[in-house]
């Protein structure tokens, strides 16, 4: 058996991951990253629960002060993004820059260990022909977290273990109860750690971004209402606009130069394609030709068919691709992750490799009359 450093948040998932590996005979070391002050599973309460778990298991527990890197990589990243009119996705950024990379570095340099594990619901396999490590969806589609892990490198995947990837959340709860873990009945986190910490994303952002009143306009520039700051809005948003209109209106864009929020009818809020930057190729090498994929443009959305077209890399943007959707998609949101797979069914436990992913770039307003199609890109 081997020495494995297990990332512990204090929740039931990471607790079961550590306890399972310990039960299997591995030399388990618990590691908790201190990200923020105050309540929240990843902070003070989580550290207490993680420490108790390690005490109960009889394994060492290390706490690493990661507040500075979390402030720089996540808090500053979010504030800058919302301030520029995009909706950043902090979780994938956090996994790459704050959690997995630093965890592996600490394990190697401080603990002499080259294996790490977490309670994420995902799976890792190795391709026998290419030797490349492949990231796959979890067996439980309701808890699958592969979407948030698209930015992990081959170095991390080669050393990482996800003990929960082959089981459901119900099974995890059952195992925790059978093992007598004190976190067995602990509620799941329901939102981003920053949202849970501050009460809402708006409350968090208001600490960093001053009110900046402006107009809410339609796509023709007609003023329909006012806002108190573009950072309070995101693409696809319907609630909280404060506009009386015959039909529901949705945010479809921003004019940052004029400090305007642009809204439209739902029929005008669909995009035929989008460009993705900072692409990380996970399970395959970067392709040179267009290819058919299944893509998710937000965590809770179903994967949809699309054609991926490789683009030339750009300084500061890295590898880039265009995704041409088989059918126009609602609410394509700059700053969120687009992640593409090779499986047809989101619940297929034997397929669905994460081929790659990246961040959706700012795009022009959608055009209801757009006729771009995947077939035309593929030359069919």
What sort of overall outline do the alpha carbons produce when their principal axes are compared?
globular
Q: What is the straight-line distance between the termini?
A: 53 Å
The CATH superfamily of the largest domain bears the name HUPs
Mean pLDDT: 89
What is the string of helix and strand elements? EHEHEHHEEEHEHHHEEEEEEEEEEH
Give the % helix.
25-40%
Largest sheet: 6 strands, antiparallel, barrel
> So what's the CATH class of the largest domain?
Alpha Beta
The gyration radius over C-alpha positions equals: 22 Å
- What count of structural domains? 3
Bin the strand percentage: 25-35%
Question: Helix count?
Answer: 9
- How are the strands ordered across the major sheet? 12-15-14-13-16-17
Q: Say what the CATH topology of the largest domain is.
A: Rossmann fold
Question: Regions with pLDDT < 50 over 5+ consecutive residues?
Answer: 368-380
Supply the CATH architecture of the largest domain: 3-Layer(aba) Sandwich
Task: Give the helix/strand class.
Answer: alpha/beta
How many distinct beta strands?
Answer: 17
